[in-house]
Amino acid sequence: MGTIGAFEAKTHLAALLDRVAKGEKITITRHGVPAAMLVLVRETSLGLSHKEIVDGFRALRRRVKAGGKSVREMIQEGAALLTGAVVDASVALAWCFPDEASDYAEAVLVALEGKTIMVPAIWGLEIANAVLASERQKRLRAQEIQQFVALLENIRSLWTCDPCVNT
Fold first, then answer.
1. What distance lies between CA 38 and its chain's CA centroid?
2. What span, in angstroms and rounded, lies between the C-alpha atoms of 93 and 95?
3. CB–CB of 95/122 below 8 Å?
4. I need a surface site. Which of 50, 97, 130, 145 has the fewest CB within 10 A?
5. Could you tell me the pTM of the whole model?
6. CB-CB neighbours of 124 under 10 Å
């Protein structure tokens, strides 16, 4: 597994992708701290058309039992669904930006006490991209970025979920 700095990774992205295509995992660092990992995306498609996918979800929904509390209701009540929760970048970003805030994102944040947070492998890149874009648009200043990152780092645990796991 190789390691490369963010600036160098940006400069040599095509070559890095060629290495990853051959099976190498590459860690991208920012100021010497691992920030992201480039890994091979495995083919997971069943070769279905979009219509077949839509029809498949509709058929699945007809077979799944309705009723009871929705996941959203349980989160809002603070019910323990799992010992951990997967948090999408859009939810975490809503914790920072007032125009992105929602009752759902707030309920997730409150319900996370004592839980392990799991995030998709691309989560850090999504957060970094949104923060960088917001800084460029002058929505965030350096102090606010530092506070947001510090708060994210203080959440109990962040585990990266590998989206390419074959089941």
1. 15
2. 5
3. no
4. 50
5. 0.49
6. 20
